[in-house]
Amino acid sequence: MKEVTQAVEAGDLKNLAQELADVVYVVYGTALTYGIDLDAVLAEVHRSNMTKEGSQNGKAGKGPNYEPPDLARVLGLDG
């Protein structure tokens, strides 16, 4: 992550893209090692995030319709 920070601080978009790709590569490799379908996990987190409500300051908040991600189901750990 140090490299990502350095690229941001330098305003080097090309290097930032490379460093972000490296982070994603490592994350997907780790997920594969542990048998995690990261695409399914991300889809569930996205679904959950879309149930959040906007606020006056532009940040999403957990309103009455918020549904937390059901990662146990996605990972097949729910029974």
UniProtKB/TrEMBL annotation:
Pfam family name, one: PRA-PH
Any GO molecular function: hydrolase activity
Keywords: Hydrolase
Region (Disordered): 49-79
InterPro entries: NTP_PyroPHydrolase-like_dom_sf, PRib-ATP_PPHydrolase-like
Protein name: Putative HAD superfamily Cof-like phosphohydrolase
Source organism (scientific name): Streptosporangium becharense
